[in-house]
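Hi all, long-time lurker, first post. I run a small reading group and we've been trying to get comfortable going from sequence to structure in the token notation. Rather than ask abstract questions, I figured I'd post a concrete chain and ask someone more experienced to write out its structure so we can walk through it together at our next meeting. Sequence below, copied exactly:
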Amino acid sequence: MVRSLWTGATGMNAQQTNVDTIANNLANVNTMGYKTQAAEFKTLLYQTLQTKTTTANGQAKPISSQVGLGTRVSSINSMFSQGALLDSESDTAFAIEGDGFFAVRCGDGQVRYTRNGDFNWSLGTGNTLVLCSSDGYPVIDTQGRPISLPNTYIVNKIKVDTSGTLQYPDANNNMQSLGVQIGTFQFQNPAGMERYGDTLWSVTPVSGPAINEATSNAVTRSRVIQGYLEGSNVSVADEMVNLIVAQRAYEMNSKVITTTDTMMEQANNLKR
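-- Answer (accepted) --
Happy to help. Here is the structure in token form:
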């Protein structure tokens, strides 16, 4: 009976993490570029209750007698399915259609990756124009450099084609390439990346190195769409169903503990 107390407790702890994960998904339902998460569970060790045989001649039993010792969270997986494309009035709003990621250089000098294309032009050193994320991190081009332009350009005239190439109208109002292309990158195992706040991800040995779409023929290139942002891929209906299931599982594990407590109380009262 004491074993069942600990088993129920592990189930409650696991479902609490499950509820926390679902709550985080619902809280970020309107976060641009957010990718939903799902908690995965695994069983704990099993304890053998009886030996392999109960007969005098040592004949083996066809079925073992083992009992589990509960569960725990094994991983929290990120789902990288495509989010809905939402119309935006900003000229520096970009959505990715495909498996690619934008790259930004954070304040610690590390390059991190995001699906949130809510960018803005900012004044950089030397009075230049630098394309930055909403947090002020410079956006990286296909050469691994921050995207920077002379301040002589009018930012609302800068256009970006589906390959991510920046264009500007000439004297005849014909769009001409500026020779700068927004970098898009892919990963062999994007689920292995480590989250770094908000909608940023860091490279890990599990995810593999970033694959530059502009220089690799091993991946299908993504499309960059100006004037749109990628919304989160959180399904509110699915998350509410998952929340109900997690709540019921939590209640059942709690019931195990109260039932075990009642059984132990009755056992203690037998001597009276």
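A couple of things your group might point at:
The mean pLDDT is 88.
The helical segments are 2-27, 236-268.
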